[in-house]
Structures are given as C-alpha cells and as structure tokens.
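Researcher: Excuse me, tokens okay?
***
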Amino acid sequence: MKTMSASTKFEGVRCRKTIFSPISLLTLLGCAAYQMNVNAFLLPKTSSTNSPSIMQGYAPPKTIQSTSSDTDVEISNSAASRYTGAGTAAVDMNKYNLPIDQIASEWTANLQAQTSMQEGGVYLGAKSKKEVFADTLKFEVKRAGGLGIELLELAGGREDGLGITIVSGLVEGGNAEGSGIIEGDSIVQLTVMKKGPTSSNAGVLSEVEEQTSVSTECLGYDATVDSIINLPDLASDDETVMITVKRLRRMPKVTVKLQFPPSQNEPDATIELFAGENLRRAMLTRGVKLNDALSRRFDSGGIGDCGSEGTCATCVVSVSKGDDLLNDMNLQEQQILAKNPRWRLACRAIVGHGMKEGDMTIQVNPDDGTSDL
C-alpha cells in the first residue's frame, strides 16, 4: 500500500489523499456474486426529480427552483427510524457513535438493486450490520469563507471513481466547526441553497429557494473533488450548503430478564434485544414459550407472528421494570388490559422505543393462574 499527502484546498476542504494498491471491484463492493458496469459512478447525479437514475450515468448539476414553502428542510439528529422499528430517536444519538479507532475498518460499500423505495447503486454501510448501522444526518453550514473540513480517503485510486472518503478533522475557526459534523463522518451529498426574488405568473414578486445538489456517496478523493467543483460559484455571503453525512453508530440494546410462573418450573433467563424489536417475535425466536398454542410451531426459530392484531391477549407479559423502554399502548391495548396496568401485549410491544437502551424485567405468562402480577 502506498500513501501520500496532498494539501489541496477547495471550498474550504482540506484533503489528505491515501492511495491504495488496486482493489478488485467485488472486494470494494463486498459482493462476490454480482458483476456490473460501474463507470456511471465516476461522477454524481443531482437530486432533481427530473434527473435520470444513477444507473444511467452522470448528469450535470441542475438548479431546481421552487417556492420557499415547498423547500423547508427538516434538520434531524438521526434518521434511525428508517432503519429500525424503534421510532423517532428520543435520546442523544451521539451516545451510540462508534469509537474513532473502529470507524476506518467498519465502513464498507454495498451494491443494492433498485427497489420501489430506493434507486439501485452503491451505498455506504457498516460491515457489522447486525450491530452497527449507518445513520444519516443533515447540517447547514455557511459557504462564505470556506467550510473548513479535512477529508481522508480510506479507499480509492480507481479509474471508476469509487471509493470511501471520510472526515478526518475540522479546521479551527472554519464554518463547519461546531456544526455537528465530526471525525469519521462520510459526506454523501452537498446541497447549495440560496434565496432570491422572482416574478410569479401574476406579476407579484415572491421569494424562492434555489437548490443545487451533488452526490459524493461512495466516491474516492478525486471524484469527491470533481463533485464539489460542480457546485455553483458563491453568489452571496448568505448562501449556505446543506451537508448530508452518514455516521456509524452501534445499535442500542435492551437486556431483558425473564421470570416464569411456578407452573412452568423454569429458571429465570436473560435475553438481549436490539432497539426496535417486537417483544413477542423476539422471545419466540429465542425459544421462549408463550401462553399461545399457535406459537408452538414457531418455537424453532420462525417469526412467531399469529397476526399481531392485539386482540386475543394470549401473549401478555407483566412488566415489573423498564416499562419506559417500551412504546406507548394504543387505545385498544389500554382497554383490553385496563384491569392489569402492568401488563403488556407482547405482540404490540416494541423494545427500546425511541432508540433507548437499558434493563427490563418481565414475567412471562402472568395469566396462568399462579401469579399475582
């Protein structure tokens, strides 16, 4: 492996370029069974609704104009709700950030086929995808004076432009300092936003927001710089750029202590669940027997889902500790369990709701007639 440093400065971005020995495409993509032409990924596409698919090649950046009421950007500290069933994060997700010494070896590029929800392409992800996920965050930063972001290429030097480039630091006093971007993040998109007056059909001036976006996901250093070059020149000091990054975070976990009624003659057990798991399904896949005859067929590891309509109440559990780690009851569950406030329908309970983690204690099958819970 050969390395060299470069002091290239563009848009306030300092880049340290690491050149690796040639890497096979399949190794980079982490995909041993697929082959494809990836020349289309040398340069990015824009985020216009009229832009062609990323699989169809490069399209020059296109300025998109619309009224300001249509272009409000919601800045969230996490997009975890898209990756898990835990709902919107209710905690500071930075507590789950992967240690910096693990990040370089954990980033990977994945080839994904086109679906109704996502275009086909190469996307950043985590190697240990069962325990680590790539969260998506957005930060708005002023352009005037430079962004002040240092980049490090982890993999690249390829003719097709594919690679992995991450943030290695922030320049003191730069615009990105204090923005929330941190070392180890990977910039996947930059969107320049500027406002200006325009004339409507009725001849009345109204403010609009112009946006120009370029994608830098899974690009090496050179292709990343090419993408930044495609951004429009700075037109005014109040222009900002919305920087979308991916950040590696570990999945929060919930430790559940299971207590069984005397009639089952089973010792207490402890299982570990990831935030977002359905409690009933998680217990069944781990071999926990519930008071539901239909679940027996799933005890060997199936999904254990009898419909999860929350009407039969045969999967009830009693929560003696950690009820705050579950999602709130809906009206139907409240009505069914009105006489037992500590009970929950396991089929309707989501563990680690709000991306929280902690400890729980529950009693399985509390309605077997031998429990006072």
In short: The chain has five helices and 16 strands. The mean pLDDT is 75.
